[in-house]
Amino acid sequence: MNEFAGKKILVTDDDVSIGDMLEEALKAEAYKVCRAYSGTEALMVIEKEKPDLVLLDLMLPGLSGEEVLPKLSGIPVIVVSAKTDIDNRIKLLYEGACDYISKPFVIAELLARIAVQLRLAGTKEKNFADDSGDTLAAGGVELDFELLRAVCGGSEISLTRTEAAILRILMSNPDRPISRGTILDRISEDTPDCTERSLKQHISNIRKKLQAADGIDHIEAVYGIGFKFN
After folding, report:
1. Which CATH superfamily is 8-127 part of?
2. Between these two residues, 59 and 197, which has the higher pLDDT value?
3. pTM for the whole thing?
4. Bridge-partner residues for 229, per DSSP?
5. How do beta strands 8-12 and 32-36 pair?
6. What does CATH list as the number for 135-229?
């Protein structure tokens, strides 16, 4: 019995025969499968289906795989491509891909790589610190979520509910990079209006408020991942 049975995999490939082969193999392992045939369609399917992992081809119509990848923060992505250039593979891994397998591939190896990434994703979720408390302190900053305020450098800082929710999850996991997708998922109940597009601006506002109080930049952007609280 597959320990990850029921997990949803998005297969993004414009080659129908390859997509069909992958879908058949994945369903045989009790995975749920959704399909996309272009980069643009992949983003639409991800928004609707919320897959647990994405298999991403690079040479797609519309948006290429390289253009899609940066938009998939918070979801494990395995690039499945005929491109074998080592520099390109390294670049994609730095830009957020969890793994890279070249076509043609052995299906058993791909299934093993999928299981590894799902296991890693599950471990990260289990190790994630609880951020449900109303008050916490880290890095010289004290946050009161209920009152929507922080104390930093001896100064009291007013926060919006969205800013407080974001700061709470970052402060609950100090020095640990948190992906954009994870932040959005964890704060969705408190701030359903926050989107991936507006998240960067909210982070910028928090950084400026804290830095104005004590001269320290407490939040660091982690390239290809998200943000962390120092």
Report:
1. Response regulator (3.40.50.2300)
2. 59
3. 0.59
4. 219
5. parallel
6. 1.10.10.10
